[in-house]
Structures are given as structure tokens and as C-alpha cells.
Amino acid sequence: MQKQLKTTYTYLAATVLLMAGVSSCQKEISGNRADQNAVIATTSTSSTIAVATNGGTTTTGGTTTDSVYVVHTCDKGQHRDSVAASALPATLSSYLSTNYSGYVFTKAFAVKDTLGAVKGYVVIINYNSKPVALQFTADGTFVKVLEQREKGDVQGAGWHKGGRFEKRGLPHKDTIALSALPAAITTYFATNYATDTLVKAFHKTDAGYLVLSKNGGVYATLFSSTGVFVSRISLPAPGEKATIADASLPSAALSYLATTYPNYVLDKAFSVSVSGTIKGYIAVIDANNTRYCVAFDANGSFVAVKTIW
């Protein structure tokens, strides 16, 4: 029974239903869900579509209940066809392997025009047990991380108090004071990274902890719910780091974040300086329950991204 439940949970049944007001954008692929942690797609409005993701089944009276939606623009005259992972461009697959190491492929769609020409791809993966939906061009170039919304928030701000994406309304529900970190975590830093300066801490969705710190560079250190060390990564860009206000990021950087990670939440921003001259910026963001570190140059142009969890 345990094996059967595990199989059911990890199985992806995708649902895509376009209600864009244009007949050429209406298409449906049925599917199911597991619980509030599952992401299902089923409907959209105006120029949006919804793409189903993450598995399992929860039904009431034989009816599948939808939970969370992933939306992106549906251009007039386009439709989607399901495709296998092996049919995706090598560039696309390489991007996923580089930026989501250890991901599990769940579903992909080729977005086609009225003549059947591929205009892009939508790919849904599981990363660290969380669904992530991404959009790519026809040649496999990354475009953006698609926004997730709970069913009742498909229209409107995209979040509600007490909901899965409540942090979009700020203040961050998962931000915790450094003084509130478990003793096991502070002891770990004192023992292993005594020269680190702790900057900010967050609760993870699995009740674990993420701690951002500085020590010649910026680091993200993960701990379990009991304060046991899990992993540590160095975030992009060498040089001297200084915490800055969100608004101090260049407009080009803010524009890139808004376009590439719709409805993202900015957790922390840093300037990167060499000999007193700013050489770039780092933004740590939350986009649909996945955290990213995004690096920019001094003008705010995108340089690199690293997935934290």
C-alpha cells in the first residue's frame, strides 16, 4: 500500500484548458491532483492558460478537485501538444540540468501556431519535491518561470491571506528573526563558519531553515527542521557584498525579475563591489515556492541564476 501511495503521489497527470475567448486557443487535457502541495491546471481567462502539474488523485463523489494553477500567455491561434522529454531541444534539457540539478521530468507541451510550427515549449518538472513550470522558445532558450496561483486566485492579485502564496502580499510569512534560529543552527555556524555574518533567515516549506550569510561572498545554508545541516552553496558574483534596499537595484534588474519571474517576492538584495566600485548586484527571490539567486552586472543586465531550493 505504501508503494502504491508513493507511486500515486509522484505520478503527474496534466490538465490544460484554455478559455482565452478564441477558438484556436481552446484545448483540454484532463488530469488529477494530490493535495494542497500538488499543482494542477485546468482553466484560464483572457490571454492566460493553465498547465497542470504534480500528481496523485483526490476526488469527491468521483469528481477531481483542482488546487493550484500555472498561468502564462496564450497567443491567438496557438495550441499545445504533449511531447516526450526526449523530443525537447538539447539546449532546453541542458538548461534544466544546469539550473535544476536532480529534477524529475513530469510533463511537456510544444506550443504551435495554426500551421503546426513549434513556437515554444512549456515544461513542468518536480524540483526538491515542488512543481516548477517553465517556458522556452522553439530553440530551447529559457524565457521565464511560469506563475502559480491557487484556484480561487486565478484572477486578481494572485494570492490571498493564509494561502499558498501569501508572501506575495508581504510581509514574508516565512521570514524569521536571526535570534529565533534554533541553537543547533547558531552552534553549527559558530563551529564551522565562525567568520560568517548572518544576514537573514527563512522557514522552508518542509519546516526546515534557510540562512543567508556573508563571508567574502554570499552563502545560502540549508538546515532540517531540527537544525541539522543539509547543504551550503556559494551564491554568484565575487567581490565585497553589501546589503541594499530593494529599490536600490537598477531598474533594468527589477524589470528583468518582473518579466522572468512573474509575481516574485524579493527576499534580499546585495551590491557587489571591487575596490569601492560597484560591479554588480545579487537578488535573492522567491518565485512560486522556489528560491533563486539572480546575479546582474553594474547596469542591471542579467548575468546568471542559481536555484537555491
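the 2nd protein, sequnce then structure:
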Amino acid sequence: MGALTALELIYLCAVLVLSYAIRGSAGFGVVTIPLLALVLPMKIVVPLVTVLGVISSCSILARDARHVEWREILRLLPFTVAGTLIGLYFFNAVDARTLARGLGALVLAYGGHTLVQTMRPLPQWKLPLRLMLPLTGALAGFVGTLFGSMAGVFYAIYLDMQRLGKNAFRATIAALLLVLGSMRGVGYFALGAFDRETLLACAVALPLMFAGVMLGNHIHTNLNQTAFRRVVSIILIASGVPLLFK
């Protein structure tokens, strides 16, 4: 954090407030990590966003815990644990530059797919539930542990197949991400990821995150869902390209 220029610090503050304002107003926050990773090492960004994700999930569940579908969580949990353990191994074994490039490739692929999907329908591949369940849990644990985000994408696809109502869908994803984030946080702590610099970043980021969430709660955007997804897709693609060369 101390090595950042004044311009980078301003950028960091703006990203935290705006990204959590987006999450607060629309419930979608995958842009946080790729944007932060442009100025901070992935080894700091991933534990940092894990802490912020756990706290934001708690704020959702404080109001909507009664809507959580605990059966789905219990079905996904064993596979998520396995994926998390594998992800922790690679998180510790792979250097920050490789992590950043991997995130860049993932973000580009996801952003490109989402952008195309808002313009024309893409074929939907449906796997049998007996395959979808372990695949969802393992990928969410693995990808979420390596990159600190994107796990919600896998959970959302699976829960959408279960045709959950709006409140149950949102609350169950929040609970899943809380469980995953807590497991990751314990793993990162055991690996020594929460060093002095990371803890300082958390201390700086927390009030900015709360400011963003409060702002998001009072924002009434004029964008429809399709336009919003296009904006997020473009941000993801724009963030992914520099990460490939970080």
C-alpha cells in the first residue's frame, strides 16, 4: 500500500466505493478483483476481497437469513470444500503474476460470453443434476479460492436450475459465499496471506466498502438489466486485457 502513488490511491478508493455501490444497488460485484488487481498484487487483493465478501454477505443474511435454502448448501458443501483445498494449494504454489494472468483470461472469457449473450441468445448447455452438483461445488471452491471472485457465477447457474424464488436465490448465494469466504479466509490465514500489508489494506478498504454499500442502497439506476450486464461485461473485458500482461 505504501508504494502506491497518489493517483493509484485515488483509483483504489474510487474502485472500492463504486464497485460496492454496484453490488449494493444491483447485487453484482465481480468487477472488484480485476479492477483492484491493476494496482495491487493478487496476493493482497484475494485475501482483502475475501474479508470484504464475508462482511457484505453477513449484511445480506442479517435481513434475509430466513430465505436460505439450507438443503442446497448442504448438498454443495462437500464439493466446495474439496475445490477450496485444491485452490489453496495452487494459491500457495503459484506466483502472483501467474495468478493475475489466469484471472485476466478468466475475466476476458466470462466478460466476452456475457456481452455476446446480451446481444443474441447462446446455446444453453444443461448437464444432469448428478454432474452439475459436484461440478458447481468444486469449481466454485477452486476458482473462488484462486481469484477471490467468480464463485457466485457457478452458484448462480446451479441455483437458477433449481428455480428458486428471488429472495431464496439471493439469500442462498449470500450464505454459500459466506461459507466459502470463511473457509478461504481460514486457509489464507494458515498460509500467512494476512501479513501487515494485507491487514492495512483491509483497514483502509472497510470504511470505503461500507460507504459504497450505503450509496448503492440509495441508488435507483435507470439502466435495464440488459444494459447493466453490457456495462459490466465491458468493464470486465477492459480489466482482463491489462492483467494478461501484468
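Residues 92 and 192 are 10 Å apart (CA to CA). The mean pLDDT is 79.
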